[in-house]
């Protein structure tokens, strides 16, 4: 176990070091000016981030992923299809309601929408679409066709929201698809999909193991769209206190709140797993002990991770945004791209995804290729989001052509790339996005457009982070197809040349 933890620590260092070095490097330039106290707290938080990520990733490997796979495969093998659908629906609702990132979203619209109503609506959306993911595997439904249908439905609802005059709901609606696929939800749902696909799906179709996150990201967007259609009034937003002093003074309450949030998030999953273990699965005691140890690793790792980003990364992100906003626009956009390129490496769920992708595809899609595609995609999304904050225009100018392009690509690239791409979009928009990149963009918007425009121009960032990987990863599919065709042509040419040589020799 110690050796495995050491390996995870090394991986975490590689992930966190780039964004840490970028922040520290900017401190030695005229672009930003952090105090000694801010640099020290940020550095300590980076170390805590490494420890937390290492513990979380180890816990995901020995607890969250096996739990999801066992539930998916055991329920599928039981032959009780209706029970499987009910279990998936209940798990989807519970883990979504308990996801810490969702409470942040609910707090932003509490003046217009009841927090319980919003949370429950999003939970029901995820539960229904998780059931749809199982149905897709059982009845061999095409993921690209399902995604196209539901995104077309989504864009139809956009027009109704605009007619109602509730444009402020649009960034929040698109963001909701990202915040509900957080660090607790992703490993479990992905593993659940693998377990179900391995038992009920066509084993030759590797893409069956993916697509659950993609579908579960649509449900929350549709749910908030419906709320936007029937809601009255504008969504209000007040700029929180991002200062380092306020976060340090409330360090104890921050850690306590994080402990509570993570416990509430993990408790339903663990409780439901042990209920199913008692009724259906009957796993060996040794296996159960390993899972219990992994749950503790996951719990403490996520508490350390979330506390570190809240105390050290959130204030730094906001201050970077406010100070860089006063620089040349080209410099601001360039720095935003570099930060986005690096920060995705520190998302904890990314490492769960890339490992699963390499395993399922037998190394055909490497972890390196995945990381490069995700980093480029997220870097572009942050740069585009900064441009939106600079020039003050609607997020629809991005998401409508972006999703149309993504859905169009899905009909021309190998299906495995489409499934992975749409899952990656949800995974990339994790806690580092909401607690470091979003405060950065809020700071930029506060300086350039004022507080009244933050909700329209800064929010929607999570949606952008979730969207651009859809394009970059599917581009890998084009590259794979093109490379395969070139190799086939070369092989055919060699065969023809060899035949010609034999004919000449015969003559």
Task: Give the helix/strand layout.
Layout: H1 2-27, H2 36-77, H3 81-97, H4 100-108, H5 115-138, H6 143-163, H7 169-179, H8 185-200, H9 212-230, H10 244-249, H11 251-281, H12 285-324, H13 329-343, H14 348-360, H15 367-391, H16 396-409, H17 415-428, H18 431-448, H19 454-457, H20 461-506
Describe this structure in words.
The protein is mainly alpha-helical and 507 residues long. Helices cover 81% and strands 0% of the residues. It has helices at residues 2-27, 36-77, 81-97, 100-108, 115-138, 143-163, 169-179, 185-200, 212-230, 244-249, 251-281, 285-324, 329-343, 348-360, 367-391, 396-409, 415-428, 431-448, 454-457, 461-506. α2 packs antiparallel against α12 (285-324) and α3 packs antiparallel against α11 (251-281). It starts with a helix and ends with a helix.
Short description:
Helices cover 81% and strands 0% of the residues. It is mostly helical and 507 residues long.
Decide which structural class fits the backbone: mainly alpha
Poorly predicted parts: none
The number of helical segments is: 20
End-to-end separation: 70 Å
Q: How many beta-strand elements?
A: 0
Question: In this structure, how is the largest beta sheet organized?
Answer: none
Rg for CA atoms: 23 Å
The residue fraction in helices comes out at over 70%
Percent in strands: under 5%
**Count of individual domains:** 1
Tertiary shape:
globular
